[in-house]
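Sat 14:20. Reprocessing the chain from the morning session after the first attempt stalled halfway. Input below, unchanged.
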Amino acid sequence: MKNRKKRLLALGLTAVLAMGSLAGCKGGEEETAALNEDGTVDTSEHVDLKMYLIGERTPDFDEVYDKVNEVLEEKLNCSLSVDFLSWGEHGQKYSLLFSGGEDFDLIFTATSWAHYEQTVAMNGFKPLSEDFIKTYAPDIWEVVPEEAWDQAKIGGEIYMVPGYNHEYTQDVMAIRGDLLEKYGYEDIKSMDDFKDFALKAAADGIYATQGGFYYQYFWNQGMTNTSGTPFNGELILYNTQDPEDLNFYSILDWDGFEDYCKMAKEMADAGCWSRDTLNSSDDRQTGLLTGRCASMVWNLATCKTYAKQANAEHPEWNVKLCDVNAGQPRIIKPYINGGVAINASSKNAERAMMVLNAMYTDPELYDLTYLGIEGKHWEAVGDDQYTVIDESGYGVDSNCNWGWRNMDLTRTEYIEDRTELDDDYDALLEEWNNNIKADHIYDSFTFDSSKVTTQVAAVEANIATYYNPLINGLVDDVDATIDAFRESLKQAGFEQILEELNRQAEEFVQSKQ
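Finished this time. Tokens:
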């Protein structure tokens, strides 16, 4: 972190500067900021704001946010209450907050996996003009790069404040080292290696993982999902490793999908994961931590966190970090992989934006929401590092604070007694930092589904019937199921989605030339 102490904010002076009498758009009506004589925004009226986050409420969350509210009350004359949509329910309940007229102000969102494009299509989010952002969140405007704002645009409008963070796309695996040694491996660096390892674990009666690993497979093939398209973009891919390839690949017309499904069936039939995996509500880490699975799949930092926990509880496991896509240039996720939007019907959109400005750029609030309470959950080491005291109540970067990540303020962990796991993590991160892939123009493209919402809904209705069983190898006949899936998507209007996608992509490419 650079010059952390020098980041003195307009917020710290209880002022978000307004340039004259600025007008913005709220619910189609003009709004004018109330200004004090000194030109600052009038916050004399106390307001109570509400925010929705995704995930699970940790034991100390309310205690931490009591501290957050002390700061907000003092500096912005407001309070913030938080409700959570759990991992298991947000897919069903997120859109209902808007269609049901729920009274709230702020909500976490993200491209593809956390309902950004779908909610914009249903007019759920307030469009954020440049003047509105500069007036009520001037510090955010200075921090967030232009590329991030461009990524957040749909139909020329910004509907979220994107996070400022470099997050790698490809997941890794946390794998039990004792089993690696037993099966003759020092490391797992390819899909073939992992398949062989998984089959050997299954032969010993140990699940290799909690389910299929299709994401890891298509990344291995150079592909990635197309933002905004049906079901988190998983049904339509593009070759992100080749900037010259501007084609989209429906998974039903891509040979790699059939190859993967047949491999997944072979592994499922061999017992590499539970036949009941589609009905499981377990978190990703549960199988590894309980000893039911030999590995878990997630991003690098999260795998390290749970590998540490597993090793603390079972030192004999010697859990390691393995990259099944070793050597492949790394994909950095879009900035809009995590952000915060304002409810279009919020009665206090201006104050909500000011609160987000504070959470995003005030070091005190940022540390609170990222790390918890200093002295209870963590201790500062210098200006830009921390040590953990106790993660059990709150957890580092574990409370859906991902919507206001700011890499300029994010502390790194100071590790005094380093382990092999720490060294592996640093080595992988250094390797990735030195091997970032070339930009592909589609990396910042987001499909606007508003013209094909009926077709998208019909396509997604087929996911549970065909797609999920296929990618987990839980079908009797792969070829027959793919054929049935293809016919069902045709009837749902998948071809119209592809036509609209290609039209928008062509316009997008032309606009960037």
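The CA atoms of residues 211 and 277 lie 6 Å apart.
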